[in-house]
Amino acid sequence: MISIHIDRLLEAHTRTFYWLAKETGISHTTLWRLKKDKALGINFITLEKLCEALKCQPGDLLSFTNHKKPARTKSLRTHARGRSASK
Question: Most buried among 1, 31, 56, 80, using CB within 10 Å?
């Protein structure tokens, strides 16, 4: 699993999550997904913007571990939509 260390670098630079979004032009949602390990990937432009803003190298921002993320499960939603359960 590849992890991103946005919080650690922001703390080292005494900057906020809001500042990072404004400085890079990356949406708060995208940054949140990266921070919470919810993103499926990152493109090079986003990585470049983060590195420029945080004055770091990609290796400072990313790390690899042998731990795998828990598998995502799809929730099954059942809606009656006004219909009765019995026929």
Answer: 31
